[in-house]
Amino acid sequence: MAAQAAAAAQAAAAAQVAAAQAAQAEAAESWYLALLGFAEHFRTSSPPKIRLCVHCLQAVFPFKPPQRIEARTHLQLGSVLYHHTKNSEQARSHLEKAWLISQQIPQFEDVKFEAASLLSELYCQENSVDAAKPLLRKAIQISQQTPYWHCRLLFQLAQLHTLEKDLVSACDLLGVGAEYARVVGSEYTRALFLLSKGMLLLMERKLQEVHPLLTLCGQIVENWQGNPIQKESLRVFFLVLQVTHYLDAGQVKSVKPCLKQLQQCIQTISTLHDDEILPSNPADLFHWLPKEHMCVLVYLVTVMHSMQAGYLEKAQKYTDKALMQLEKLKMLDCSPILSSFQVILLEHIIMCRLVTGHKATALQEISQVCQLCQQSPRLFSNHAAQLHTLLGLYCVSVNCMDNAEAQFTTALRLTNHQELWAFIVTNLASVYIREGNRHQELYSLLERINPDHSFPVSSHCLRAAAFYVRGLFSFFQGRYNEAKRFLRETLKMSNAEDLNRLTACSLVLLGHIFYVLGNHRESNNMVVPAMQLASKIPDMSVQLWSSALLRDLNKACGNAMDAHEAAQMHQNFSQQLLQDHIEACSLPEHNLITWTDGPPPVQFQAQNGPNTSLASLL
Question: Which residues form the signal peptide (predicted)?
Fold first, then answer.
């Protein structure tokens, strides 16, 4: 009986302890949920009350909560401080604690890997890349049983290597990711990894590896049956790579079927509604880009195509649409990719302005690119060479040849991109030809971009341009038969790929050669289509040149009325170019032509007036 009474007393005591523990857990849960609710209320207030949100989360720790709550609260604090304040030191401390504690807790993957992901982001922001890499590698190593996080962390480490220009390591990681996605049955994410790898291989110019990889991607994309938006976004990614590959190769005509498919694809996506149903495979929980970003990207590649083909009014139309869309997006989204899109669009439209005779507008847009680059050191690092190249082109358009040479030389020093290097060298050679007294430097450059043998890049467009520069040099040297051979090669290549500007420039130069040789009929056969094509582009410099030749041709042939009409056209073009020239050189931004070192200057001093020669315009 005593033993039974003792057992009953023991059982009652145990029940009391259990009840006390349950009450304590319930109380703990209630205070925790209350503090969490207040924190979220303050975070989502309009405007957010971040200080109060942080106070509520910090109030969790004095209660000495269980490890799970402690780790999660450190993660929440680190995330709020990282995203909403400049207190990176405290954010780092909380995220490091969240990562450390969560590794000791079984089945706590979301907190553990989110802490690792966010902490490595913060390390990169603080330029502590050497701390971010081992952290991500460890997280990747221990996340193999969690498909979503394993794939996400692989993407993140590959992106980190890409930002460091270590494309070989990035490609290796993307290959690992593609194989892992295949093993866990996610063909969708496998395609994302492979397309990302294809993009990097294109950047590295490893074309032998790109072609079979893109063929495989095409098969995977077509065979995958899943969420329609995800499928179409894969097709957009695939087609963007194909289009940019063609454009890099200067194949403006060959790209048209792919570009048309891409434009149709983005129209299809814009009609689809976002499906709220989550994929059954957690490895499929990725999106390449939001629909709105994809739309801007398609506008962008369309502008690139129009610029290369010489459809400058079309390029202007799509640039306006894209920039308007970007302005709306940037009000709600601070994603760095939007600034990159904006800079690339401006780079292309600046070149259009210089061709169409709007130098003042081009200069103001160059200044706009400078301002965007001032806000982001990484953006400036990626676009510094292009910026100096644009300034070099502007200098050529206002006849500041010494400044043009300095800008192109600076750009050459800053780039390791082969196509950009060839473009700069081609333009620098034309500067030396116009200066007329730089023979040694010119011969050295021409040898490096010899289109007859060992041309340094595979671009059809740049090789055609190199033939044109050779023809221009031979013309200035009075070697007319040699010039005609080079220019006919340019014409053959530019006609094959619809390179309208090169066609117009070659025709007018051939017309000039025939005029000098006294073959007026043949000259007219060249100059008239050059003028028509230049008007269609429109290319003001070629129109000015063609109208001057038509005036002189008609005079020589005794066609007084036609000569008068051509003279009037020439006068009109001269006046437009002269007025634009004076306006551009009077802008304070004109002082940018002297900038050749360091980050873009912040302020510009106004000038008294233009200090450039107008002789070649008249």
Answer: none
The conformational region for residue 357 under phi > 0 = left, psi -120 to 50 = alpha, else beta, is left
How many Å apart are CA 162 and CA 149, to the nearest integer? 20
> How many Å separate Cα 327 from the centre of its chain?
16
Give me the amino acid identity at 393.
L
| Residue type present at position 148 | Y
C-alpha dist (Å) from residue 209 to 25, 174, 203, 255: 59, 14, 12, 20
Is 202:174 a contact under the CB 8 Å cutoff? Answer: no
**Range with the lowest mean pLDDT among 88-92, 203-207, 517-521?**
203-207
**CA–CA distance, 432 with 467 (Å, rounded to integer):** 16
Which tokens go with 551? 């005036």
Task: Pick the closest to residue 193 from 223, 157, 163 (CA basis).
Answer: 157
Q: At how many degrees (to 10) do helices 312-332 and 336-356 cross?
A: 150
Tell me if the bond preceding 147 is cis, omega within 30° of 0: no
Contact 136, 119 (CB under 8 A): no
- Are 459 and 419 in contact by the 8 Å Cβ rule? The answer is yes
Q: What is the pLDDT of residues 153-175, one digit of tens each?
A: 999 999 999 988 899 999 999 99
Find the helix or strand (DSSP H, E) in which 303 lies. Answer: helix 291-309
Q: Return d(Cα 80, Cα 74) in angstroms, integer.
A: 10
The answer to whether 394 and 362 have CB atoms below 8 angstroms apart is: yes
Please state the length of the chain: 618
User: Percent of the chain scored above 70 by pLDDT?
Assistant: 92
Structure tokens at 159: 């992106």
Amino acid at 536: K
Contacts of 245 (CB under 8 A, 6+ apart): 202, 210, 214
Q: How far is CA 197 from CA 80, 210, 231, in A?
A: 33, 9, 18
pTM of the model: 0.85
Contact 576, 357 (CB under 8 A): yes
Element (H, E) at 520: helix 520-536
Confidence of residue 37 (pLDDT cuts 50, 70, 90): confident
Chain center to CA of 368:
16
Residue showing tokens 């900038």: 595
Q: 175-226: per-residue pLDDT in tens? A: 999 999 999 999 999 999 999 999 999 988 888 888 899 999 999 999 998 8
Q: Measured between alpha carbons, how far is 367 from 355 in angstroms, rounded to an integer?
A: 18
Distances 455 to 362, 428, 500 between C-alpha atoms, Å: 31, 17, 22
**Does residue 538 have a cis peptide bond before it, meaning omega lies within 30 degrees of 0?**
yes
Q: Would you give the end-to-end CA distance of the chain in angstroms?
A: 123
CA 569, 573, 578, 583: dihedral to nearest 10 degrees?
140
d(CA 348, CA 425): 19
Q: Which residues contact 169 (CB under 8 A, 6 or more apart)?
A: 158, 161
Supply the DSSP symbol for 275. Answer: P
Burial profile 6-37: b = 16 or more Cβ within 10 angstroms, e = fewer: eeeeeeeeeeeeeeeeeeeeeeeeeebeebbe
